[in-house]
Amino acid sequence: MAASKIKASDRSKVCQQIVTILKKEYGSRAPSYEYDVLDTLLFSICLENSNATDAEKALQRLKDDFYDYNELRVSSITEIQNAFVDMSDPEWRAMRVREVLQFVFESGYTFDLEDLKKKTMDSAEKHLKKIKSLTPFSIAHTLLYALGSHIVPVSDSILSAAIWLGLLEPKTKIKTAAEQLKGAVRKSDVPLFYYLFSCLASDSKYQKIMESVPPADPETPLDSLKAVPDRLKSLIAGKLKVPRKPAKTKTVKKKTAESKASADSKKTAARKTTNKKVVNKKKTSDRKTATKKSSATTSGASKKKTATKKTTSKKTTGGKKAAAKSPVKKKTATKKTVNKKKTAVKKTAEKPKKKAVKKKTKTTKKPRK
């Protein structure tokens, strides 16, 4: 069913039931803040996404820590944010306080906004929107308490609580939420409803539950709207609790134990592998040294053998060469002597022949006539 089919009367009934349930938890009277318009505006900055007691203390610290608003206006953000101790977004709040005071001072050179009461709601809203840092919540809170306008201030915490309960649909924006709640709550009931619902939204007991437990998710928005009172009762009664995390921690512990065991096993395996590597390295180094020694000994023996071989070969070759040379020399010498003898014999043989020839010639000569 679409959101447009939800009647304003249905939502108004649910809002009345919410007020009756929250009265038992936070009281039946809304506080009457006796502030002027400027202090109301500054108080709205302190109250956004916080509770009333912390906001009042923060505003009082702003007044006590500084001499006046002019000194507060010219102070730094780091000095101003000390007033918002233990509150969310202290820098954000300090910046808005200083910008509000700067705007008010520049508009009339005084720190007074009482003229805002004389204006209509539309003109007063337009005037406050000129302050760029102001949120819709601060403007609505100031218009509600300073002018008595029919408007419901909605902060981020109020919006998330309304969506979680089922009073508003998911993904609803602040502007549309303020309009829907304005049509559901009467003007006279707005201060009490606003106070009680803001107390619920800022209560630390229920914030954790609303953040951890998923929001209502029925079939139609109208069913979720009708289930709001029962869901709120079960929240206050303690039936809805933050889901425990021992199982996760146990699993985490188991995982951590398993991871530790695996890490230890990995470490031992790594140690074993390193020890094996060391042993293997030692073995290989021993083998290498043994092989080196053996190779050195073999090389030495081979060198000795080769040296002895060389010496023996040299000796043998020298002896053979000498032996080979000696008979050749002897043969050549004998040949030479033989040849000399032959030539001598020939010469001796030839000499008498010549003499004989000569003698023959002498005998054959004829006598001269």
Q: Whole-number average pLDDT?
A: 78
- Counting helices, strands and paired strands, the structural category is mainly alpha
Question: Radius of gyration over alpha carbons?
Answer: 62 Å
Q: What separation lies between the terminal Cα atoms? A: 193 Å
Q: Which superfamily, in CATH terms, is the homologous superfamily of the domain at 3-237?
A: Hypothetical protein, domain 2
| Annotated CATH architecture of the domain at 3-237 | Orthogonal Bundle
- Here the CATH topology of the domain at 3-237 equals Endonuclease III, domain 1
| β-strand number | 0
Percent strand equals under 5%
Low-confidence stretches: 249-253, 296-333, 348-369
Largest sheet: none
CATH class of the domain at 3-237: Mainly Alpha
Number of helices: 15
Inertia-based shape: globular
The proportion of residues forming helix, as a percent range, comes to over 70%
Following the backbone from N to C, one meets helices and strands in this order, namely: HHHHHHHHHHHHHHH
Explain this structure to me?
The protein is mainly α and 369 residues long. The protein is built from 15 helices and no strands. It has a domain at 3-237: Endonuclease III, domain 1. The chain is globular and about 150 Å long. Helices cover 73% and strands 0% of the residues. The protein has helices at residues 8-26, 37-47, 52-65, 69-73, 77-80, 90-108, 121-129, 136-147, 156-165, 174-184, 190-202, 204-212, 221-226, 228-237, 246-364. α1 (8-26) packs across α10 and α1 packs across α11.
